[in-house]
């Protein structure tokens, strides 16, 4: 178990409050048993998250829908866990879903993890979604500086020349200037 998965399971252990169900779900190697948790009614959120993350890390696409819902959750640790599992899932729908979440202005407060996931995926949808999201964050008095910074850093990592205009505009924003200059330096000429 790597450090990120250990962090998720420890957080969920605390939520489970000593539940035997937690111990069972952590110990099982039966992917069908984990998938059953995702469709069983009346399950607490921690059980669904644990099952979805374990399935996602195992590459079982039955976790896709649950992980996308968690990626759009209001609790940042759940979003981070879902992004971690989605990056390992290998489902071709992941980039489209992350792009839709990153560019949804009604849910922009929760776009940080979808933006980071798009950067990690390096999919065809990644740069256009980050460009769109960053362009919107450059409006005067936009309160989502962390998301704007994640977009700038992501566009630098992706190295897509289509990002040049929006990164150039981002240099005019004091909170983004240094990162935008660094990102521009990473773009091919």
Automatic annotation (TrEMBL):
Pfam families: HEAT_PBS. Coiled coil: none annotated. SMART domains: EZ_HEAT. InterPro entries: ARM-like (IPR011989), ARM-type_fold (IPR016024), PBS_lyase_HEAT (IPR004155). This is Adenylosuccinate lyase. It comes from Streptomyces formicae. The lineage of its organism: Bacteria, Bacillati, Actinomycetota, Actinomycetes, Kitasatosporales.
